[in-house]
Design brief:
Length: about 725
């Protein structure tokens, strides 16, 4: 506060008749010289004598100002006497302090008004754009006010109603006539929702599969669109400057969210991240994409971590859809850039603005895939700091796309990347999402509310784990217990194969990327099928995916340790029942021993008396938000090519495995079957298999194949429960 205490006397009022106001810079106090001094320019430098307040005087003046900004003459004289100052000095100090405070308040109010003005301008542009192409809420057709007769309008509404009835008829036909010929199924598009735009599991593309986990309410598995997200063409007339204004507002909000602390953020109960105080957020920010729908809930988290990757590489990874998907292969189903609104300036990513689509997923059939259309904006802040922000654009595109269902909105989210020495980067990640909780199974609602499923802590943990993997595969030192020492090129090929295997498992569980069709009569198991024709890296024919999720009364760590224990594998793995598997190779992915890639082989001889030619490739991944154990059978000859550094993309695999996540149940609402010995809470266990049921792509799926895979899942779950004494 020293600068405040060194303010000058801005004016003097002497009883002798001197009325002239003399102002100074405001950093010092001065006293008038004697009256017999002349006013010539040569002697003006000697005319005033400056006086600096002491620290004690500043402290006392500030304390008095806080109590009473407008002291009377008696109070000023008393304060000046106590501090050794003249009453006039005290008077002008208070005047200057009030002036400074008023200036600061006006500056702050101007800033707030400017922000509100910017938001109003964006809303005004959006409203003007919507008025150019109004849509009828009843029939979804373009509204041409004053030109459509009332009879024609009623016919359009009736036509929309009949379309909805036809769509419902198709769903019912798929349910009761699922065994019909393929031509009928093809015409009716039975088993998959075909809206192909943004319907994150709307009721039009949900097929009841009869899932019931004891809550007496049948909860259908959501069926995803067969081709991911067929987005609209961007040739429709609209002003792309709206996108830039929205991106700038989102970037401004992201920077503020990253910089501010308490009370806007508080420590999350689970994990090491932070959660957003929504009450404080509403006071400080205006919604840049409109008001939250009444039936939506909010999840907003922040996490920070150091990552072994340089800033430029990470920024390029985030702005390239393919690299972004490869960096987060388990969290992203599919992603693509729909339009490059701005490529950046000066050959860099600074100022780059992309319109993108993506599917965000977690490995469970009970959690709908989050399909989002959003802007991704990249901006450099200083020499060593970059920011990448995402924000949904459904509000801006409403007039073009019509009343399409939106079940997830991405508020300003992204990361701030700062340079650190030794090849590291400091990453501050923010995830802020609004979603429809009604379409999520009740088992997963506490997990999603905690932010551990899609929150910032998970993204930072995944990023750290992937970057550590890229860092550790360079050395060629073999791990203890390995029978083989791989060249770095062999390790890289093994890692690529394992990553493709795990990604294939996750997309199979969530029914993303490929064209999946739903299968009926699956009880508590979600069955999806697809035809593989000419797909590199998988066998040709009809592939059946079977997944289910159950609650387990053991902690996630206990369950993970059991499933990766080779000695306990015989409880659930058919190949291990004739003898234990032997570890041939182990590639650690991080410092944590639970994150690794292993190659296993059976020790039991085959029926011909020779060793089995089938090897097992397995990848395990774990962090605080959950874990994965994925494995697949691989041919020995093909695996030898991969271990020698050959291309792994052509090796056919069909993965199976487990996904483990904490249940995050409050103690008061934990299921009754949770025994007292399950320290650390319960777990949500997802079991998934992908099986080739026919080598002929045109073959029909038989009930025998369905019963076989259902029996396989049932035996696997029963073996896990018996091994953990959870019956």
């Amino acid at each position: 506060m020293e600068s405040l205490g060194e303010m000058s006397i801005l004016g003097e009022s002497l009883e002798g008749g001197r009325d002239e106001l003399e102002s100074r810079s405001g950093s010092d106090n001065f006293e008038a010289a004697s009256g017999d001094e002349d006013n010539t320019p040569q002697k003006s430098s000697k005319r005033k004598k400056y006086h600096r307040h002491t620290a004690f005087q500043i402290q006392e003046l500030e304390a008095s100002f806080k109590d009473n900004p407008h002291p009377d003459e008696k109070a000023r004289l008393e304060l000046g006497k106590r501090l050794g100052l003249e009453g006039r000095q005290v008077k002008f100090w208070f005047q200057n302090r009030r002036t400074q405070m008023k200036t600061q308040l006006e500056r702050h109010e101007n800033s707030i008004l400017k922000q509100e003005n910017d938001k109003l301008r964006i809303e005004n542009i959006a409203m003007k754009e919507a008025m150019r192409s109004p849509m009828c809420e009843n029939c979804g057709s373009p509204a041409i006010l004053g030109e459509v007769p009332i009879e024609q309008h009623h016919l359009m509404i009736e036509n929309a109603r009949l379309k909805d009835e036809l769509k419902m008829f198709r769903v019912l036909s798929g349910k009761f006539l699922g065994g019909g010929d393929g031509s009928m199924n093809s015409k009716l598009d039975l088993s998959v929702g075909m809206n192909g735009f943004c319907g994150v599991n709307s009721m039009d593309n949900v097929m009841p599969l009869g899932l019931d986990f004891g809550n007496r309410v049948s909860n259908p598995f959501p069926v995803m669109p067969h081709n991911g997200m067929n987005m609209m063409s961007l040739n429709a007339p609209f002003d792309k400057s709206m996108f830039l204004e929205l991106a700038m507002a989102a970037m401004d909000e992201l920077i503020k969210l990253a910089q501010l602390g308490s009370p806007l953020w508080f420590k999350s109960p689970e994990g090491n991240g932070e959660s957003l105080n929504l009450d404080e957020y509403i006071k400080m920010f205006s919604p840049c994409i409109g008001v939250k729908p009444s039936h939506f809930v909010t999840e907003a988290t922040r996490a920070t971590g150091n990552v072994i990757i340089n800033v430029a590489t990470l920024v390029e990874t985030l702005m390239d859809a393919k690299q972004w998907t490869e960096m987060f292969p388990w969290s992203i189903g599919s992603a693509s850039i729909l339009d490059v609104i701005s490529p950046g300036t000066g050959g860099s990513r600074n100022g780059a603005l992309h319109l993108m689509q993506a599917e965000f997923q977690i490995p469970s059939p009970l959690v709908p895939v989050r399909q989002v259309k959003f802007l991704r904006f990249c901006k450099q802040h200083g020499d060593d700091t970059w920011a990448v922000v995402d924000v949904s654009v459904d509000t801006l595109l409403h007039g073009i796309t019509g009343n399409m269902p939106v079940n997830c909105r991405r508020l300003p989210s992204g990361c701030i990347v700062q340079y650190m020495p030794n090849g590291y980067s400091k990453v501050t990640w923010i995830e802020h999402t609004e979603y429809n909780e009604d379409i999520v199974h009740h088992l997963y609602r506490p997990l999603l509310r905690s932010g551990m499923a899609f929150g910032a802590q998970k993204w930072v943990a995944y990023l750290q784990r992937q970057c550590e993997l890229f860092d550790v595969i360079v050395p060629s030192m073999p791990s203890p217990g390995d029978q083989l020492a791989l060249h770095p090129s062999g390790k890289r090929s093994m890692v690529k194969l394992a990553q493709r295997m795990t990604r294939s498992f996750c997309t199979g569980v969530c029914s993303t990327v490929n064209k999946w069709e739903g299968v009926q009569g699956a009880d508590n198991t979600k069955l999806m099928m697809r035809k593989s024709i000419g797909n590199c890296g998988e066998p040709h024919g009809v592939i059946l995916s079977a997944t289910t999720t159950v609650w387990m009364p053991v902690s996630p760590q206990h369950l993970f340790d059991f499933l990766q224990d080779e000695k306990a594998r015989s409880h659930w793995d058919v190949l291990s029942q004739d003898g234990p598997l032997q570890q041939m190779l182990r590639i650690p992915k991080a410092q944590d021993l639970g994150n690794c890639i292993t190659l296993l082989r059976t020790t039991a001889p085959s029926s011909s008396g020779n060793k089995n030619n089938v090897l097992i490739l397995q990848e395990t991944s774990a962090d605080a938000s959950g874990s994965l154990i994925v494995h697949t059978a691989v041919d020995t000859a093909g695996m030898n090519v991969v271990m020698n550094g050959g291309d792994s993309s052509g090796l056919a695999i069909l993965p199976s495995g487990f996904g483990i996540m904490p249940d995050c149940f409050p103690e008061s609402s934990r299921p009754d079957s949770c025994n007292e010995g399950s320290l650390g809470g319960g777990s949500l266990l997802t079991v998934g298999f992908q099986i080739l049921v026919s080598q002929v792509p045109a073959a029909e799926l038989t009930m025998e194949s369905v019963e076989t895979v259902k029996s396989l899942i049932s035996r696997t779950l029963q073996g896990v429960k018996e091994g953990l004494n959870c019956n």
